[in-house]
Sequence to fold (152 residues):
Amino acid sequence: MGGFTGDAAIMKHATMGYELLDHTGDIGIRVWAGDLKGLFQEAARALFDIITDRRKVVARLRREVAVEGSGREELMVAWLNELLYLHEVEELLFCDFALSEVAQESVKGVAMGEKFQEGRHLINTAVKAVTYHLLEVKEQDGRWQAQIIFDI
Fold:
């Protein structure tokens, strides 16, 4: 698995979850879910678990998010980069996600969270971007899986 030095488990569920992957100079995740919507939701949860303690974020506001792309990999990068953009520009932290549509060339959903509050929230890791490096989104053995590397 070129570039990875080891795996550190963060969260595992039988049907849905993710784990952190050590990657030189970056952070990677391996995500799994029973369906494509769940995969995109779990990838977003993993991103915000890397950024902050998601348990301290309250769903006070909702942001509709819609992205387009050609192919599942491009859609995954667009989805996560749009959430990252909202985090950086509007200082939002998200704790949960609900997707209404995952189509061939578009993803639509809602991100729930609140504005960053100094003293209440900590930024654990500043994620700069979602990359295409070693990116995979695939269905295997009746389960959806993704591997995503974040530039930090």
